[in-house]
Specification:
With 232 residues, the protein is an alpha/beta fold. The chain has a domain at 5-158: Toll/interleukin-1 receptor homology (TIR) domain (Rossmann fold). Helix content is 40%, strand content 9%. It has helices at 24-36, 54-63, 87-101, 119-122, 139-152, 163-177, 191-205, 214-219; strands spanning 12-16, 40-43, 67-71, 108-113, 132-133. 33% of the residues are buried.
């Protein structure tokens, strides 16, 4: 778990999304939009602490993030028990309560759905919040996230680039990601390795600069990556 969540709260974005393989590309696109903005992504994957209850950790993390993005696409029953996944709505409820209880001064939210009107049936209390409906192409959730952040983050705290440049950088990232010899299953990059690849690329563009000072280098140490040679 990151050590100093409270020190970076104004620049942190809590990401609440599925962790399955089918959502992996969208997860990375969502995260890349945050990193390209020069901000700091936080998700449940980053919050493993053996001596604390998970719910307590999540409350602490959301309370130390100025922004959050939530995906509600896993609303249907799955498997033999026909169960839907409820962790994401629970986490979104925490974030919405925090935002509304502070009149959105301390927290701002965006949420995503796979189909336009379904959420009004399984979470009718959210009616009127105008969710973003993303496409199969991960670039849709990337551009929505980046454009939303540009609208809510103070200009001096965000690296604001033309969205088309961010999309081009995302494509460069996906090409680089495919060269990484990772520690995940079948040699795929792990969560930490994909995050590091994003940091390195956006750092190269001058968009993400948290390692430019000693405290940042200690909080975000470089993770060595191994890459295959690019074939002609």
């Amino acid at each position: 778990m990151r050590r100093n969540l409270s020190s970076y709260r104004d620049s942190q974005v809590f990401l609440n999304h599925p962790f399955d393989d089918d959502f992996a590309k969208h997860e990375q696109a969502l995260t890349f939009g945050v990193v390209a903005a020069g901000l700091l992504p936080i998700s449940a994957r980053d919050l493993s602490t053996p001596d604390r209850a998970r719910l307590e950790i999540l409350v602490d993390a959301i309370g130390n993030c100025q922004y959050s993005a939530h995906d509600l696409s896993r609303c249907r029953g799955e498997g033999s028990a026909n169960l839907s996944r409820m962790n994401m709505p629970v986490e979104m409820g925490m974030a919405l309560f925090y935002a509304l209880s502070t009149q959105r001064a301390n927290h701002r939210c965006i949420f995503f759905v796979a189909e336009q009107h379904d959420y009004q049936r399984f979470a009718s209390d959210l009616a009127g919040l105008d969710p973003f409906v993303y496409q199969e192409d991960p670039e849709s959730i990337l551009t929505a996230t980046y454009d939303w952040l540009r609208g809510v983050v103070p200009a001096g705290r965000m690296s604001s680039q033309p969205t088309v440049d961010v999309v081009e950088a995302w494509r460069a990232y996906t090409s680089d990601r495919d060269l990484i010899v990772g520690a995940g299953p079948d040699g795929k990059p792990s969560h930490a390795e994909t995050r590091e690849a994003m940091y390195q690329l956006c750092e190269g563009y001058g968009w993400w600069d948290w390692r430019n000072y000693r405290g940042g280098r200690e909080e975000f140490p470089i993770l060595p990556l191994k890459r295959r040679e690019r074939t002609p």
